[in-house]
Design a protein that fits this description.
The protein is α/β, with parallel strands linked by helices. It is built from 10 helices and 7 strands. The protein has one domain: Uracil-DNA glycosylase-like domain (Uracil-DNA Glycosylase, subunit E, 3-Layer(aba) Sandwich). The protein has a 7-stranded mixed sheet, with helices on both faces. Strand 6 and strand 7 form a beta hairpin. Helix 1 crosses helix 6. The longest helix has 18 residues. The chain binds iron/sulfur cluster. Iron/sulfur cluster binds next to helix 6.
Length: about 220
């Protein structure tokens, strides 16, 4: 495991949000209220062009007290309709893999780098990810996961500042109080079924590490 610099200071991001950051900071003491405030902010956000075609912004879902926070790329069509991340085929694979590792989807917190659906499910553009990154940083600050799990290259690049998921997956990095362990994106695993054993092994290792830290399912 290595110690790497990653997250740009939180306050600069909140300042860049340009409004209500003081309220968000106060709310950060209460995770539910903090996430509700963020949810309201992303629903009216127009910081990047992705707001134009969204049905709704998708902030995140799951247990805000979980030590595990998974971060994907962006909402797809079904997520855009339902308002929850990872409810399509990739989400079902993630749910199944979590179950095989001995935990439920509702035991973890799941979010994306961008909160609005890129048209045609394309990869979000760097400018879009940069525009939306303050919300992810705020989510991380509110949830304070023990282990942050970027899924796929875009999330790994944004969170870790490094690319090359083939080399980075399953490796552990440390920033302040948070461990970071990148894994494949479930959509990649759907397209490449041979990657599933590696994907499962990585998720199992992450859950085992959380348990060694003293976490029990449902806390
Ligand atoms: S993707 Fe993020 S930055 Fe862009 S409009 Fe949606 S909430 Fe705002």
């Amino acid at each position: 495991m290595s110690d790497v610099p990653i997250l740009t200071p939180l306050y600069r991001y909140w300042r860049d949000l340009g409004y209500r950051w003081m309220g968000l900071r106060r709310a950060a003491g209460a995770r539910t209220r903090g996430l509700q405030e963020l949810h309201r902010m992303v629903q009216r956000c127009q910081r990047c062009p992705l707001h134009r075609e969204r049905k709704q912004a998708v902030l995140g879902v799951g247990n805000p007290w979980s030590p595990l926070m998974f971060v994907g790329e962006g909402p797809g069509a079904q997520e855009d309709t339902e308002g929850q991340p990872f409810v399509g085929a990739a989400g079902q694979l993630l749910t199944k893999t979590l179950a095989m590792a001995g935990i439920r989807r509702e035991d973890v917190y799941i979010a994306n780098v961008v909160k609005c659906r890129p048209p045609g499910n394309r990869t979000p553009r760097p400018s879009e990810m940069q525009a939306c990154f303050p919300y992810l940083i705020a989510q991380i600050e509110i949830i304070r996961p023990a282990i942050l799990i970027p899924m796929g290259n875009p999330a790994t690049q944004m969170i870790l500042g490094q690319s090359g998921i083939m080399q980075l997956r399953g490796r552990w990095f440390r920033k302040n109080d948070t461990w970071i362990c990148p894994i494949f994106h479930p959509a990649y695993v759907l397209r490449n079924p041979n990657a599933f054993p590696t994907f499962l092994q990585d998720v199992q290792a992450i859950v085992a590490t959380a348990r060694r830290m003293g976490w029990h399912r449902g806390e």
